[in-house]
Structures are given as C-alpha cells and as structure tokens.
Amino acid sequence: VENNSLIMGFIKILMIGMVLLFLAGCNPQKSDDFNEIKNLDNFKSKEFGFSFSFPSSWNEVARDLPERWAIINNEDTILFTVNKAQIKNLAAMGKIQALRDLYPETSDNKIEQEKIDEVNSMVKLASFNNKTWYTYAIKFPDKNVNSIVSGTLCGDNKINLVMVSSFDTFDENEIAYSSMLNSFEC
Questions:
Q1: Contacts of 92 (CB under 8 A, 6+ apart)
Q2: pTM (predicted TM-score)
C-alpha cells in the first residue's frame, strides 16, 4: 500500500502544470555503462508480449497489476503503463502525452499555440535496440525531481516508461532507464 501511494505521488508530480521544461533525452551511448552492472533481473509480460532487463538492486512493486508495473530504488521510480494505442504515429502520440502531462488543466482545444510549440520542440524520437520511442523530459525544481517519459508501440498497445528521479541520483538512474529501453523487446 505504501509503494502504491508512493507511485501515485510521483504520478501526481508528473501532472503538475506550468513547470520549467528541459530536454534531457535518453542518451543511448550511456547504455555502455549499464554493461558494468553485474546483477540484472528480467521482466517478461506474456499478456502484452514485451520484456526488458533492470538492475536487481531495484525493487518490483505492483507486479500484480498487468497494465501498470513499477520498480523503485529508494525514492526513485520507473513506472510502466500499458494502454490500447489510439493512434499509431509515435511523434503525435508523444506530443499528446506531453500536453496532457504538462497542461492537465487545459482542454485539448484551448491550448495556447505557445504551449503547443514548446511541446513540439521537446518531444523527440529515439531508437533503442532497433525500436523507436518518443521521449521527453520534465524538470520540477521546486520538488528536486527530474522525469523522463518515453513511449513505444508493441502490437496494438502503447507502452509508456516513466522515470521519476531526484536531482542527486538522476544521472545514475538515467543509465538504468536507457538500458531498460535498450533491452526492451516486443
């Protein structure tokens, strides 16, 4: 129950509007550092047909919920969600997700052009293990939290991977996050 509250707290942080944005992007070159990590666990979803590796020092939570799954390392979280894909265009999918994350209080048809332009410039496509992902980052300086959001398609499903990390552990966690994207198979 405590872990679910922690996850929900991090999700609420992601939904805070009017924050300073930055583009951290996932850097595939950092994944070489992940090869130095000796102890890895594997996750495989038979229901949704994907798998990935993650550091065994992280703890699994909410594994009994097939459409939501998370790993936690102290107060840092990497959350997976699975939903039916409404569209198949990853760039558009990422921009829609970023608009919802950054401006939840604004209806889709009333978003100012400045906000749309900001989101359009921050959402990027990146390739990990021959799989394309949309990715963008959000910085919450008032909460000492950085976040990276990535998404891809696996069959008819949209897979989202969200990292919420303190500033102090962000670089180390970004290596684990990038490696998860690099090990992702669908």
A1: none
A2: 0.75
